[in-house]
Design a protein that fits this description.
Blueprint: H1 46-82, H2 89-131, H3 142-145, H4 156-167, H5 183-208, H6 212-253
């Protein structure tokens, strides 16, 4: 039986000299710290604001025309009461045609405006959370959902608008809070709620109007409702443009205003 020749014995590890200190073992390679979660991404709503301004302006023009139609119907009903022979069937047919066509156009424009406004409103709310994450009492989803909760929809959207407005405002040059008037928010909301109430009353009275006198009264109410709606549209444009401008300034100029 044969054996392999043994190799050379390993040399002993060097021993530290007396009094010498042993160097510490090398530290493990540091692992990178986890990145913090993203706070959100700014998406400036310039395009949405422009589209919304256009829709609100066209809607205001149609509402003005609708107010004129209501006054025309009021005049027609007055003539039917004072001098029935002076009113021809063509006049009544024209009033019905104008009422129907105007109502359809108003409905289509309002649906389009509602959709674009909700998208814009949600976007500026999300931007506000990027600017100041701790300044909001509700999640961003309520920027849309708050409009569809009965009773709460009379104040939830307004609170969201106020909080977004404040979050979108730059601080003073010394870093302190800088107040920017919220009058555009408050004025728009008050008149907007007034239009909701007037429109509800008008719709009920219009359905119930079955006499010439009742139609005269509801026509006046319709004209008033349309004029108030025009005012609400103008104030909405001011609110939309101002809030969009605040967010643009803060996004480009930083959280602190220049001295």
């Amino acid at each position: 039986m044969s054996f392999n020749k043994p190799g050379p014995s390993p040399s002993p590890a060097p021993q530290p000299e007396a009094g010498a200190t042993t160097p510490p073992p090398p530290l493990p390679a540091p692992h990178p710290a986890p990145l913090p979660p993203a706070a959100g991404v700014l998406r400036l709503p310039e395009g949405l604001a422009t589209a919304l301004t256009l829709l609100l302006s066209v809607g205001a023009a149609v509402d003005l025309f609708s107010a004129g139609v209501h006054l025309y119907v009021w005049r027609l009903m007055k003539d039917l009461t004072d001098a029935p022979a002076s009113v021809e069937d063509d006049d009544i047919d024209l009033a019905d045609l104008l009422n129907g066509a105007t109502g359809v156009v108003q409905t289509v424009l309002r649906l389009a405006t509602i959709v674009v406004f909700l998208v814009w409103f949600h976007r500026v709310r999300c931007n506000g959370e990027v600017f100041r994450p701790d300044d909001f009492s509700q999640s961003a989803g309520w920027a849309i959902g708050g409009w569809f909760v009965p009773i709460a929809n009379l104040f939830f959207p307004y609170r969201t608008a106020r909080e977004t407005w404040n979050a979108s405002t730059q601080l003073a040059p010394d870093g302190s809070y800088r107040h920017v008037s919220t009058a555009p928010v408050t004025a728009w909301w008050i008149v907007f709620v007034a239009t909701l109430i007037l429109d509800r009353v008008f719709s009920r009275r219009y359905i119930a109007a079955d006499t010439v006198e009742a139609m005269r009264g509801v026509s006046v109410l319709g004209a008033v409702t349309d004029v108030v709606t025009v005012v609400a549209a103008v104030l909405a444009v001011v609110f939309v443009r101002k809030l969009t401008a605040l967010q643009r300034i803060k996004a480009t100029g930083g959280p602190i205003a220049a001295a």
